[in-house]
Amino acid sequence: MNELYLSIRHFLEYCEIERAYSPRTVDGYRLALEQFTDCMKDLYGELPTVTSITAHDIRVFPGWLHDNGQVNNTIRMKIAAVKSFFKYCLKKSITTNNPAAVVSSPKHDKKLPSFLQQEEVSALMDTFDTTTPKGARDAAIAELLYSCGLRVSELTALNADTVNVNDQQVKIIGKGGKERIVPIGTRAITALRHWLSMRNQLRSSSYKGAPENALFLSVRGLRINSAEVYRIIHASMREVTETRQKSPHVLRHSFATHLLDNGADIYAVSQMLGHSSLSTTQIYTHVSIDRLKQSYKMAHPRA
Length: 303
Fold this sequence. Notes:
Layout: H1 3-18, H2 23-44, H3 55-67, H4 72-91, H5 118-125, H6 133-148, H7 152-156, E1 163-164, E2 169-173, E3 179-183, H8 186-204, H9 226-238, H10 248-261, H11 266-273, H12 278-281, H13 283-299
Antiparallel strand pairs: 1-2, 2-3
């Protein structure tokens, strides 16, 4: 048996017996090292010995995996298996050095944010019964989250006097106490005016204490909390979208994605989101570019 195959077999036995790794982990290592030997065969034209494999050879492996359809997070796990194998080889004196020690793993894949399609946002806003104080409140919450790209904590912290419906803007205190002014869209202003006209009805129905200055109240007349906002948005989204994530933050993602889709300046979007770095906002450009590619493939006759 080839020396490399034999060393891999001994390594897997070591993992299984001496290290008592789970069968799933051992199987993962086995698959990764089978792919690694396939890569080395492609590179050398035959199976090399363990001692002849260099750091440069191992650096070829991530690209080989990528060419075979593997994503970065999977590639990271397979590189980790190779690193463990060569660490074992050094420990058992099969090699005199560890060529994998200087090989870096690819970065984690950035998880693209969930967002609603524009027609799903419209459908979401139609789910609220705005003839009742609670429905008017819920509609205003949804409209403001989407119109301004607010974090749920920023929304629940708003007071009635921090929203300027005449100038159509809101003052937000974001992370780290940073203050920003965000414009409010016309539909959100309409929803807010309607809610403010009914706000005292919700408060007076059950609250017996001092008047609460919060913009959005619970049915008990107290400042609404994040958990209640989550329940409102989650329940409404269940009616209009199949997207896996259903939360207030999806409306923030939708705000940013739709603005960039429609040509907004990324710096302006970053400012409105309250991001401390432009790189944080750039994840939304990936979403827009992916959608652009999909449209291209569907529409271009030679795509």
